[in-house]
Design brief:
Mean pLDDT: 91
CATH topology: Rossmann fold
Distance between the termini: 20 Å
Strand order of the largest sheet: 5-4-6-3-7-8
Number of helices: 5
Shape: globular
CATH superfamily: Phosphoglycerate mutase-like
Order of helices and strands: EEEHEHEHHEHEE
Largest sheet: 6 strands, mixed
Number of domains: 1
CATH class: Alpha Beta
Number of strands: 8
Strand content: 15-25%
Low-confidence stretches: 1-9, 12-20
Length: 213
Amino acid sequence: MISGHCFIARRTTQRSCRTKIMPVVHFITHPEVVIDPEVPVQDWPLSPIGLQRAGAFLHRPWLRTVRAVFSSAERKATDMAHMLADHLGIAPVIIDALGENDRSATGYLPKAEFESVADAFFARPQESVRGWERAIDAQHRIVTAVDHALSIAAVDGDVAIISHGGVGTLLLCHLKRTAISRADDQPGDGGGNVYSFDAATRTLLSGWRKIDV
C-alpha cells in the first residue's frame, strides 16, 4: 500500500515486452457544504470554500487519466461531479446507491449530537442507531454500487467516484478487509478527501489524502 501523499497514478505490468495499463479508482468525498437546517441534507450545495477547493482539485495531475466520473445523486456530490466531468469533457453518471448513509430518520442534527450518533453508527454496525441505516447495510450498498460503476466504466482509463465520507469509510474498511470502524474515517471536518485503489484487484494504492494538496 502507498500511504500519505505518495501516490502512483497508474500501475503497469510487463508481459512479453508489452505494457498493460491497470485502471485506478479514485474515491473522492465532496468538500465543504452550506449547512442549512431548513433544507434537506441531500440538497445541501457546496459552500464557497467547497467550490474553491473543488476548483483547485481539477488541476491535480493524476486526474488527466480519468475517463469515467460517477456520482451520488446528492447535490453536494453532483456539484463536484459536474465540475470534474465538464473539465474532462465527459458526462457524469449518477448512481443513487453511491449516496451517504440514510440519516433521514433524524434529519439535521447539531454537530455535537451528530458526532455522538455517528460514533454509535460505526461502533454498533448491526444496529439501527436512532433509525439511521445500519452500517452493515450501508457498507453492502456502497460496495455493490462501486462494483456496478466499475462494471460499466470505460476500460481505457481511470475512474473517479464522487461520494461521501461515511460510506467512503465503510468502503475503505471493506477494501482493507477490516471490521467497520470510525478509525478509518476521513481526516478533518469538512470533507474533500480521496483514496485510490486498483480497479481489477481492489488493492489499496493510497489512504485518505486531501483533494487539493
